[in-house]
Design goal:
mainly alpha
């Protein structure tokens, strides 16, 4: 298997681990980290494809990194606010519609 195929295989494995984390875990922090893992897997595939198709993939990586940084700031702020209000980050126990 060539370098591109290996990088895409690793990217698919990392993305699958992120999807499994989102679907199986109930802790908001773990779900948040799993989403970040999926974004990093996409970045790896963009970089791997940039080696074959040109530098446009690297430009996309910069945009994904900027979105991930903004998502991290907003997501952590929301998680902290929910924790302060509900005293838990377990997604099964959080119901924002009830006071």
């Amino acid at each position: 298997m060539d370098l591109l195929g290996s990088a895409l295989a690793v990217s698919a494995i990392i993305f699958s681990l992120g999807v499994a984390g989102v679907l199986l875990r109930r802790n908001a922090i773990i779900v948040f980290m799993s989403i970040e893992l999926m974004l990093n897997a996409v970045n790896l595939s963009f970089i791997a494809l940039a080696q074959q198709l040109g530098p446009e993939g690297q430009v996309f990586v910069l945009f994904v990194m900027a979105v991930a940084a903004a998502e991290a700031v907003v997501g952590l702020a929301i998680i902290i606010a929910i924790y302060r209000h509900k005293q838990t980050v377990n997604l099964d126990k959080i119901n924002l519609l009830s006071g």
